[in-house]
Amino acid sequence: MWKDINFRIGLISAIFTFSILLVLPRIPINIDNSILRIDSYIGGYEIKLPGEYVLNLSDFRKSTDFGGGTRFVYQVDEPKTDEVRKVFEERLKNSGYKGFRIGIAQQEPDKVLVEIPSYQNIDDVEYLTQGTGGLVVKSLVNPDDWSAEEFSKYFSTPELWKDTDISEKDVESVVVLSSEQDLVQLQFVFNLVGKQKFRKVVEENVNKPVAIYLDGSLYPAAVPVIAQDLLKNPDIDPVITGSFNKKEMQAFAVKVKVDTLDVNPTYVGTSEVNSSYGDTFMRNIVVALTISFGLSCIYLVFKYGHFGVLYSGVLLFGSVFLLALHKLFFVVLNVHSLIGIIFSFGLLIYGLVLLGEEIKKGISAKKPLDICVVEGYKNTLKYVKMVGSSMFLLFVVSFFVSKSDLRWFLASVCLGSLVFMLDHTLVVNTLFEVLNFVRKKK
Amino acid sequence: MTGFLGLVLSSYEIFVFLGLSFFLFPILLPKNIKGLSTKRSFLVPIILIQSFILLIIFTFLIGYSTTISLEGFYITMFFVSFLLTVLFNVHFLVVLSKEGRKEEISVIVKKSFLTLFSALVPVFIVLVSLYTFTGGVLSSLTFYVLFFIFINFLFLGFLTPVILNLLESF
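YS: structure for the whole thing
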């Protein structure tokens, strides 16, 4: 199958076409005249997958430096800004947010700024950044006065409750589950000390309520009544059910695992931020890369004559496929991945120059052209496979080890080494056969 | 320890990467370096010495204090310069293996130079285009990449032959 040139031509065409469609932004196509009526678009696809998951390929993922994002502003007492900054960072990291920036406003040292890149969903940020992350369980000051008919007063009168010494330090985790009728269940998983404290509270408050205060709130989030069953199984992780906001509770589950704040940051506002390098930065990068690609092709043609035209075609395929892979694998565009893209481009050119020099050497030695091409290709292919495979292995392992922004450089070069190998193992030899530089394999 | 050395020591990715490189590249080099008693494993000391010099250059260039926002950038640049060192030396040793002792080392260095320079011309074009069209905001990127390409050419031209001759004499 691989030796069949028609299969290889089809494969290259398919890869190239899909790559172009992947790389393109959404371009609307609106034609409305007497002959034709089209209202559609090309590029920038959002593909619906099974399980309601949407593969969003509408744009490249960009860091805040490159593509801007959303800025959340919080007011905090000035001595606490650093503490708040660290806790916010832990909360956002544990929630899976990446590429965000947290800092103190230069002109207003009591303001903490959180910037989230535009490709990330910001729905949870508000819940993650508000509240102390604390948990307090209180019991009634006068349990004998408990009356189920006056249930609502227990929510609104903090004086009715006293501390039980159970706090977020006694909780390993909070598990958020959905139940029927859109209610949310919260399961509190206590650590060993917490289990002992909770057992004592259960024994003292059977059939009586306890108040659960979350996030430093002045009023309880829930006032569950301790069921008789808990007395039989005091070590069980208790579950409460209520009409909680699921996203809020999921955010609380993250907050309870990191350090608690002494202060409750005050949310000031949200604004959109543009790229640090200017509004037209991405457009300028595209223009720069397009012009340099064109000049590189002219250089190859100038250096290698009609072979240079072939190399330009290979370079075009490789460059488009490289960018498509960046979009497909959600590589974030930032300074690091840009360096990786430049390095990968250099690698593609290096392979073509090596091939060009080998063929040139053969031609200078007055060998027949197809012999020069076959020998040149063979000599280069071994080396390309060696360099490409070792770089790919190196970068894949380093990518999974790295946790910093360096991983975007590693991802970029990893994809670059893959494209480098594919260009030479598939595209170069196929184009040589198609353009009759070598005899076609049957 | 502060500054670039401090950054490097805390960036465990570098040690994973360096360790793997030293293991992989000698294995993957051509088995026979014709006409020379040089072994494939000479690649490791050549790259080790040059990487160490790169580290010293970085430390003095960047200084003992680094701004938080640029930390990651310097680590990436160190990776790029290390990669260039590896590629340049692997290329040189492969050319050496093909030419054997037919040519003087200086001629082999010149051949390697020319091929590598030809391959890097489009990279220079990309860097200059990026610098020009983005209004100079990527000046650090342009400067450091060009600088370390230049340093690696210097290594290839002067340091690699010297180290190779020294190792051969042992």
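YS: worth flagging: The CA atoms of residues 132 and 155 of chain A lie 20 Å apart.
IM: good catch. Also Chain A touches chain B through 48 residues (CB under 8 Å).
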